[in-house]
Amino acid sequence: MDNVAEKKLALTHFWVAFGAFGLAAVMGLYQVIERSGFFGFLESREVYYASVSTHGVLMGFVLTTFFIMGFGYYVANTTLKLPVWNKTFAWTGFGVALTGVVLAALPLLLGQASVLFTFYPPLMAHPIFYIGATLLVVGSWFWCVSMIVMYMQWKKANPGQPVPLAMFATTANAILWLWTSAGVAVEVLFQLIPWALGWIDTIDAGLARTLFAWTLHPIVYFWLIPTYTAFYTLVPKQAGGFLFSDEMARAAFILLVVFSLPIGFHHLYMDPEQAHGWKILHAVGTFVVTLPTFITGFTVIASLEIAGRLNGGKGLFGWIAALPWNNPMVLAIILGLLMLIFGGFGGLVNASYAMNAMVHNTAWISGHFHLIFGGTTIIMYFGIAYYFWPILTGKPLFCPSMAIAQLWSWFIGMVIMTTPWHILGLLGQPRRIDSVNYNNLLTISWEPYEVTMIFGGLILVVSAGMLVYNLYKTHLGSESYQGEVEYAEPIHAVKDLPGYLNSFTLWNIVIGVFMLIAFGYPILQFFLMETFGSGRWGV
Amino acid sequence: MHIDKLEKNWAGISLGIAGLFVTVILGSAFFHGIHAPSNVETIDSAKLHLSAEFAEDKLGVERNPNGSVTVRMVAGRYGFYPKDLTLPAETAITFRWVSLDVIHGVHMPMTNMSTMIVPGYVAQVSTVLHHAGDYPLLCNEYCGMGHAHMWSNIKVVSKAQWDALNTQGGANHG
């Protein structure tokens, strides 16, 4: 297959993603050192909050969005055996998104957008920040259109055939992202930009938080789906086995898309602008969305067991030792699943309506999402990168053993950094503080954990450097490598797939109904009661 | 379509686990009166000084005829006002929080007193404080450069001590 153009498209997206990642990792180390308070000469809250805001935007929005787009283009190309539809369109999307990043970076780095990556009004950033962020999202919509068009092209040419699983998941993610981004898009277009430009004088902070909550939960599934796609469709092959069940994988992706959307109010449990009933409804939905993760855990571990036994592993646990631990993708999933167990446990605490009060907005929360996003989700992005780089560049991986050391160090660093972070939360430390100034004995108990976190940060930044260096040296290599992405086969071939597991029409209707129920009145209420907006506040 | 028996069983178990969690949460929400702050009550944050409830001289502790206590607090960059309060242990306390500027969050470590304070809305939290001691009130939502400096004090004393303080006056100002 001649797919040089597709390789270039995917690789360019990936480089933006990992470039942003490398920069943001260095900022992360600075932050963990600054906030410990042990290095007086580094103390600057202006620099700290500019850095935290940039770190969040780069890791949460730039790394993810560009990685997901690059991955999606290449998955579509290689699973469907179709050229990427309208490459000018795809490159235009890339250009729009990159322009957005550059625009947003200007006020961020100048300290004019130190509103963190959640940018809750009435704290106001420079208007260019909101416009840049909007362009990043608009650029990603080009990708969504490309994915859906290619999916339709293939379905039209192959009526009744099951869409290849990796593409089914990628299309699910494109649809998920269109639904997901609608909330924040409305907030930015109708509230933040007109307000920041002075066209309207006040903003309803409660409505803004409600719209942001629409986006805030499913966005993490947008980030997670490429990781799950690799779990199901790449890892079993790399481990030397087969996918345990193609059908359950499809069901899991559908459940993820449908139930990650109408549950955002678990971010608003402690908010005054929404009533109990809505919060409880979203709480129930939050537990429903654990189901696809439970299913994923089972199916991918079963797939790994098949591989381990095919490799000669015996006994109850012998198959684990028989897995190819020196394959970056296999190691990434093992370490990722370990972090998912702990992170998932923390997530259940957060999701619990009453227990949440004990951890809400404490350091526990930052620890939680670094473990589950920076850990589970991102470590698989690394696994994918190590697998894709030789294929996309046509050159062998510069140093496979460095890749293995990098994955281990990322895992170890993440555990050393996030465990104290969780404990600090339980000891009452608020999130997002740049220094400890409270005149209270409680804060003495925080110090050892702040120190420990620095070591975690150091290991992580070295690990990030190893990743970027390895990918860079691979790209510059002189040897040649021929290979194409190989997708895992299910142990039972897929036949007689019911329409509802091979199409999103029904599910889009279900999502529409769910969103109407979950967000209809909670948004409408702001127009039915007398509300009082807020003016513009600097940081 | 092929679904393995093991997978069907596991799906059932997962459903059971999630169902158990939901039951416990709904049980605590409905039968133990554990509620997140959700009163959906609006207020003009720009005119708090003119409001009947949150003008400066109305803030702090109020004893209700039924023995419960209402605490009215204003959050603003960078502090919670009044800055020092003394509250009774083992007493039903209703906190009513408003913001005069941006979004804040507040919690008392080691208690379940936690809420977001969104400008334009009154956040109401009902709780009982069980242990006497000195507690900080900490801002837990980024609100600007002084976020880490936003805190104040609550002293929790036994009910008897608190009643004694009250008859002498001055409990409101610690």
From TrEMBL, chain A:
All residue ranges annotated as the Cytochrome oxidase subunit I profile domain in the record: 1-501
Swiss-Prot/TrEMBL keywords: Electron transport, Membrane, Respiratory chain, Transmembrane, Transmembrane helix, Transport
Pfam families xrefs: COX1
InterPro entries in UniProt: Ba3-like_Oxidase_I, Cyt_c_oxase-like_su1_dom, Cyt_c_oxase-like_su1_sf, Cyt_C_Oxase_1
Keyword Transmembrane helix: yes
Residue ranges of the TM segments: 12-33, 54-76, 88-117, 129-154, 174-199, 211-231, 251-269, 281-308, 328-349, 369-388, 408-428, 449-472, 506-528
Domain of life of the native organism: Bacteria
CDD domains cross-referenced by the UniProt entry: ba3-like_Oxidase_I
Protein name, as recorded: B(O/a)3-type cytochrome-c oxidase subunit 1
Organism of origin: Methylomonas rosea
Organism classification: Bacteria, Pseudomonadati, Pseudomonadota, Gammaproteobacteria, Methylococcales
From TrEMBL, chain B:
Transmembrane segments: 12-34
Tree of life domain: Bacteria
Chief location bin: other
Keywords: Copper, Membrane, Metal-binding, Transmembrane, Transmembrane helix
Subcellular localization, as worded in the UniProt entry: Cell envelope
Gene3D superfamilies noted in UniProt: Cupredoxins - blue copper proteins
Pfam families, per the entry: COX2
Sequence ranges assigned to domain Cytochrome oxidase subunit II copper A binding in this UniProt record: 64-168
The protein's name in its UniProt record: Cytochrome C oxidase subunit II
